[in-house]
Amino acid sequence: MSATFVGMPAFPAAARAATGDAQLRHNLRKATHTIRDRRRAVVEELDDWPRLRAAGRAVKDRVLRHLDHYLERLEEAVTAAGGRVHWAADAAEANAIVTGLVRATGEREVVKVKSMATQEIELNEALAAAGITAYETDLAELIVQLGDDRPSHILVPAIHRNRAEIREIFRRTMSEWGVPAPDDLTDDPAALAEAARRHLREKFLSAKVAVSGANFAVAETGSLVVLESEGNGRMCLTLPRTLISVVGIEKIVPTWADLEVFLQLLPRSSTGERMNPYTSVWSGVIPGDGPQEFHLVLLDNGRSATLADTVGRQALRCIRCSACLNICPVYERAGGHAYGSVYPGPIGAILTPQLRGTTTELDASLPYASSLCGACYEVCPVAIDIPEVLVHLRERVASGGGHTAERAAMAAAGWVLNDDRRLGLAQRAAGRMRGLVPRRLPGPGAAWTDTRDVPAIPAESFRDWWATRERGGGPDARGPADGRGRTEGGR
Q1: What is the pTM of this model?
Q2: Phi, psi (degrees; rounded to nearest 5) at 354
Q3: Residue 483 has pLDDT above 50, yes or no
C-alpha cells in the first residue's frame, strides 16, 4: 500500500524542507524545463491556438452551466450501451461502491489505469483494507507504488525521482509485487522500461478486473476516453472481464465535435506532442469484445460545492494537462509533495481547498503557495485564471478566521485608506520616519521580507507635492522626490 498525504504539514513548512533537497530541485528543474520547452514548440506551430483555447474554455463553461442535463444524458447513453452507472457523493461512497463491485466478482486483485480520481479518494488504500490488491500499471505510478511513495506531478507522478533512484526501487521491491527485476538491471531507460514490461505482463494476462478513470466522457454516446503514452492503459481497458471507471462529474464533453477540440489541446499542453500515442475509447459493453461488464462511478466529492462558487468554479475546467506545474517557479523549487494533495502545483492550490475545504492548516495554506506571477494562466489550455481564484480563496481563508495577522493588517489598512485625512497624516508620518524603517520587518512581516526588500519611502508624498504645485510653490514641478534626491521627471 502506497503512502498517503494524511498528516502532511502546511505548505510553508513542507516547502521549506523540500527546497533544501538539492537532488530534488535538480530533478524537478530538468524535467519541468524539458516538458515546457516541448510544449512551447508544438503550441507555436498552430496559428489558431488562441481560438482553440477559447473553444475549450467555452465548451467547459457550457458543461458546467448545464451539468445536471449532461450528467443525465450521459447516464442514459451509458445504460443504453450496456453499462451501469453509480453515483458517489463523496470518497467514502465511491470506495464502498468499487469495493463492493470487485468483491462481487470474487477476485482479490485488480489492475489500474493511471487515474487522478482514484488517487483523490485513496481507492488503493480502501481496497487494501478490504483484502484486495490494486496494481498500478502506468510506469510512473508503478514507480511510486513500488517505492511506497506519493505522486508529485499530475502527468509524471515520479518526476521527483531520477534513473538511479528508480533502478534501486525496482531492485529492492519489485519482487514483493510480482516478477522481480533482473539482477543486472542498469539505470538505462530502455532497461528500466523492459523490467517494468516483464513485471506488468503477468498482471495484464491474469487480471479479471480493471479500474480506470477517464480524461473525458462524451454525453451524446456514453463513450469514455483515456489518453496515454505507454499503452499499458489499453491493456487494462481491453483484457479484463470487468471494467470499473471512476470519473469526476466535471469530465463531460457534450459531443464528439467538442471532444475534437480537447484532443488537440491536451497532448500539446501535457506531453508536448501533436497527438498522444494512445487514445482509447469505449462505449458500454460489446458481446465478445473487451470487458463484458462495465460500471461507471460518477464522483462528486466536493465538485458540486465548487460549482456553486461563481469565481472558483473555473477550476473545474481543468483537463489535468499539468502545463501550470511545469511553468510555475514555486512548484519547480518545492515539488509536488509540499502541496499535501494528489493535485499539486497551481491547479492544486485552487482545486484542493475547494474540494476539501479550508478548515485544516494545510488546505488554508495552499492559496498562498504562489507568487501570483500569472504564468499558469498564460499556459492553461482552457484559460483558468488561477491567480484570480487564488486571491478569491485567500479572501475566503482570511474571512473564515485564518491568517489573523493578515486580517488585522488589512483592517488597519482599510481604516486608513477609507479616510482622506487619515491617509494624508499616515503618509506624512511615514515620510518623516523613513530613516527608521528596518530592512527586515519584525513579527509576522519577517516572512514577507525574507524574500523582498522593503520599498523606499519618499520624503514627500504625491498628494503633498501636488498640493504644493497647485498653490504655485515648490522649486521643482517635474515630480515628487523618490527619497534618494531624484524626481519622477528626472528618471
Answers
A1: 0.85
A2: -85, -40
A3: no
Q: How far apart are the C-alpha atoms of 297 and 217, rounded to whole Å?
A: 12
For strand 278-282 and strand 209-212, is the pairing parallel, antiparallel, or unpaired?
unpaired
Residue 338: CB atoms within 10 Å: 29
Domain layout of the chain by residue ranges: 48-301, 305-402, 405-482
Q: What is the pLDDT of residues 39-94, one digit of tens each?
A: 999 999 999 999 999 999 999 999 999 999 999 999 999 999 999 999 999 999 99
Q: How far apart are CA 459 and CA 454, in angstroms?
A: 15
Task: List alpha helices for 130-231, DSSP H.
Answer: 139-146, 163-177, 189-206
What residue has cell string 469565481? 311
Q: Residues 362, 340: contact at Cβ < 8 Å? A: yes
Fold of 48-301: Rossmann fold (3.40.50)
In whole angstroms, give the CA distance from residue 440 to residue 451: 10
3-state secondary structure of 412: helix
| Residue range 174-180: mean pLDDT, rounded | 95
Of the CATH numbers 1.10.10.10, 3.40.50.10490, 3.30.300.130, 1.10.1060.10, which one belongs to the domain with range 305-402?
A: 1.10.1060.10
Burial label for 423, CB within 10 Å (0-12, 13-18, 19+), is middle
Residues 455 and 421 sit within 8 Å (Cβ to Cβ): no
DSSP 8-state assignment for residue 203: H
Mean pLDDT score of the chain, rounded to an integer? 91
- CA count, 13 A, side-chain hemisphere, 452: 10
Tens digit of each residue's pLDDT (9 = 90 or more) over 320-330:
999 999 999 99
Three-point CA angle 350, 353, 357, nearest 5°: 155
**Range 433-459 average pLDDT:** 77
Cell numbers found for residue 429: 508620518
The Cα 89–Cα 377 span in angstroms is: 30
Q: How many residues does the chain have?
A: 491
Residue written as cell 493511471?
114
Cα distances (Å, whole numbers) of residue 254 to 68, 76, 83, 219: 12, 13, 19, 5
pLDDT tens digits, 220-254: 999 999 999 999 999 999 999 999 999 999 999 99
Any idea which residue has 457523493 for its cell? 89
